[in-house]
Amino acid sequence: MSQIRLRGYQCTGVLLLAVVVCQASAQPAHSLPDQRAADFSALDRFVRESYAFLPMKATDWSAVIRALMPRARAARDDTTWMHLLEEALDSLYDGHAQLNTNATDSWRPVPYGLSVQPDKGRYVITAVQRGSLPERTGVRPGDELVAIDGVPLSRLYESRRPRFLTRADPAADEWALASAVAGRHNSRYELLIRRAGRESVLTPSGTTPARDDVEWKRVGRDIGLIAISTFAADRDVVPAFDRALEALRNTRGLIVDVRSNAGGDTTIARPIIGRLLTARRQYAWMANRDGPGLGPRRPEFVDARGPWTYSAAVVVLVDRFSVSMAEGFAMALSGLGRARIVGTRMAGLGAAVGRIELPYSRIPVQISTEPVYALDGTPRWELDPDVVVNPLGRADRNDPFIAAAIEELERGRPAAR
Question: Where does residue 45 rank: exposed (0-12), middle (13-18), buried (19+ CB within 10 A)?
């Protein structure tokens, strides 16, 4: 028998709930089948007690456990065991529900690589992630994706549909398509695409230049642009942002670009937000599981920071690859009335995550544990941009997102407060 101990700490999203599974003093299980069963039971308890979205998902979690427990006990090699755990988490169709390790042939967490929109049996590419393998193939928005590594996308899509659902859920279909497009870690990523009626195979070539954590420049008529590629806590993002902001101090407006930002930690995002405020402000609501539902919401705050405040108008750029903390960053600035969000829908990962380490295999697992809400109560996973950019519908020769952001700034917005 085991017990679960909870402790809070900061990491991806806003506040993480670390869950450490501790073995009790009872006689431990020794056989491999019993160890697998104990680990799978720990995962079961973690999801039942802490997964924020279980009450609202179409997933029949009890059916997942009944179906997979015999296979868990029968798993003899580590790869089979890892894939079984992944299959269980896939039933939640949540990009935050994943192992923090993988086999070489595991499916990548979503979103990755491409954003694809189904259209009458066709799959149209609407966005390409910077720094991804698909970017190196030369694929571009507007192309039709037909197959990956020789397998029709329609077949991959069907293979990724979550099992054990009690009802149809469009969110499950959306996750399945995103997962099919993300591919496996060992994917060659040869893409069969159709462009202007002609089919061709595109293969990744060369290397993608590494992005700096923070990049800046001037665009338009003296407008500052700061691109932030991560909010990871182990990077020097805040000092780099401060240097960029100092260089752009006297600009007429500021674009903060968090497209293709994989998220990170509030200890990084909050100090950046604080450079755009003049006083301590509430920026979000959060909640926890409490029995069969969610407990009361609690406020989250951010402090003003720095020797001076950037007070001109601000726009935040987002896309489908703005993930987790990047989504919270945009949501916070919008709710504070400090920025307008320009771009497309984001990844839709709407909660901070909690983690456990399985007691025998020591495999780390994470799930969504604390939903995040905007100040007006809008769930983060339902947040839409203030200005929607259709990259297929603009004739801008360069970056249609930046062009839309400049247009928005030219209209003028409230100063810092």
Answer: middle
CA distances, 233 to each of 58, 238, 268, 280, 347 (Å): 34, 10, 6, 22, 20
Write down the number of H helices and E strands in the chain. 10, 21
Regions of the chain where pLDDT drops below 70: 1-29, 393-397, 413-417
pTM of the model: 0.88
Peptide bond into 111 cis (omega under 30): yes
- Tell me the H-state helices in 193-276: 237-247, 266-274
Cα distance between residue 53 and residue 350, in whole Å: 10
- Nearest partner of 331 among 346, 321, 320, judged by Cα: 346
Residue 397 pLDDT? 58
* Distance (Å, whole) CA 56 – CA 166: 11
Q: Which residues pair with 373 in a beta bridge?
A: 285, 379
Distance CA 377, CA 244 (A): 33
